[in-house]
């Protein structure tokens, strides 16, 4: 299931289309280049009429036969008769007021898609894993919705999802959870779910209390919440980042602080994880250059899992590292990480399955780590 987002030229900073790829498998098409091929087998089309040019509208009308049978939502200024008439001239559309909140648009799209938004699971993926994945996916959606609508964050759902992940990992290990996570369309969500799974495994290996385990896993799910303030075009960019883009991404812990600071319903421990998970024990991390005495155990656990997941994930611009190579890169960080925690983590991820993988050169490990941060 995929939706196509159509705009004339570059998206404006306030375009409602910007956040949709976090919630749906979506691709962007330029109005002047829309064709039957561009629409493909999409299930729904969303058109932003903002700044639509005559040439763009003309081309869209020519291509309308390729999507006229699909649900089409046109984002317009309902007080602007010209925009409304232009949208209605393309095909049968459902008008959506640009002044409305993006969460209303998301709910409208879900209503239109109905049962088409299901995930196709591998036949051998256990039912309990599917249920946990569905539960956590709903939780992540509600978390993201709360950040764009300024509603209360669903902390109870978050804690329950953390508990479900913990029970699943305790019962059958992290493997099937990771298989399910790969089915999510958003890299940002996949990464957070992976971090939560490994954090659960490590917390259990440390014999933490049930409450502490839930805190760590919930922190794993929430740790990258600050990325909600970064354009999807940068987060999901299929290539190397520019220096300015990388600098913006490095601000996501600070953005996390901005999002969470007024949310009294979010526990302090979770806020610290969101803000501090890129801090290093030797004071060389960011955003505040904290040192070991100021970085608690919850943060240290999530930091280790976050780095490991970033290293083993394959992206369009980099290959994944084998687990042994990822561990080698992390060991090379020395006093930056809690090496005692890392020693507990290693047996969970380096098994006989990877015994033949040799330690990669330190400079190669460092290069991969820097591109994954």
TrEMBL record:
Alphabetical keyword list: Transferase
Phylogenetic placement of the source organism: Bacteria, Pseudomonadati, Pseudomonadota, Alphaproteobacteria, Hyphomicrobiales
Pfam families per UniProt: HD_5 (PF13487)
Keyword check for Transferase: yes
Extent of the signal sequence: none
InterPro entries, A to Z: CheY-like_superfamily, HD/PDEase_dom, HD_GYP_dom, HDIG_dom
Organism for this UniProt entry: Roseibium hamelinense
UniProt-recorded name of the protein: Putative nucleotidyltransferase with HDIG domain
SUPFAM superfamilies registered for this protein in UniProt: CheY-like (SSF52172), HD-domain/PDEase-like (SSF109604)
Keyword Transferase found: yes
All residue ranges annotated as the HD-GYP domain in the record: 166-362
UniProt xrefs under NCBIfam families: HDIG
Gene Ontology molecular function: phosphoric diester hydrolase activity; transferase activity
Domain of life: Bacteria
């Amino acid at each position: 299931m995929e939706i196509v987002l159509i705009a004339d030229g570059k998206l404006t900073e306030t375009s409602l289309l910007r956040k949709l790829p976090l919630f749906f498998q979506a691709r962007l098409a330029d109005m002047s280049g829309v064709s039957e091929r561009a629409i493909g087998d999409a299930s729904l089309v969303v058109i932003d009429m903002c700044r639509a040019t005559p040439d763009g509208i003309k081309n869209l009308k020519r291509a309308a036969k390729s999507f006229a049978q699909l649900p089409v939502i046109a984002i317009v200024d309902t007080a602007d008769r010209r925009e409304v008439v232009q949208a209605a001239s393309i095909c049968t559309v459902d008008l959506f007021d640009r002044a409305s909140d993006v969460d209303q648009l998301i709910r409208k799209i879900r209503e239109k898609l109905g049962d088409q938004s299901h995930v196709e699971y591998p036949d051998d993926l256990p039912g309990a894993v599917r249920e946990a994945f569905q539960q956590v996916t709903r939780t992540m959606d509600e978390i993201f919705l709360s950040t764009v609508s300024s509603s209360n964050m669903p902390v109870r759902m978050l804690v329950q999802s953390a508990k479900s992940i913990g029970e699943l990992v305790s019962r059958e290990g992290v493997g099937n959870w990771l298989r399910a996570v790969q089915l999510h369309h958003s890299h940002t969500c996949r990464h957070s779910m992976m971090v939560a799974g490994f954090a659960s495994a490590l917390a259990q290996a440390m014999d933490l209390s049930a409450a502490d385990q839930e805190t760590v896993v919930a922190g794993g799910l929430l740790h990258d919440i600050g990325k909600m303030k970064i354009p999807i075009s940068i987060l999901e960019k299929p290539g190397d980042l520019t220096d300015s883009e990388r600098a913006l991404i490095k601000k996501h812990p600070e953005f996390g602080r901005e999002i969470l600071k007024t949310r009294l319903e979010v526990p302090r421990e979770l806020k610290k994880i969101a803000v501090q998970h890129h801090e290093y024990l030797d004071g060389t991390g960011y955003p505040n250059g904290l040192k070991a005495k100021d970085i608690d155990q919850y943060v240290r656990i999530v930091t280790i899992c976050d780095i490991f997941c970033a290293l083993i994930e394959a992206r369009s611009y980099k290959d994944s590292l084998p687990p042994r190579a990822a561990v080698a890169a992390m060991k090379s960080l020395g006093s930056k990480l809690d090496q005692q925690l890392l020693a507990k983590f290693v047996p969970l991820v380096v098994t006989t399955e990877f015994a033949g993988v040799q330690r990669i050169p330190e400079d190669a490990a460092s290069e991969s780590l820097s591109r994954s941060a």
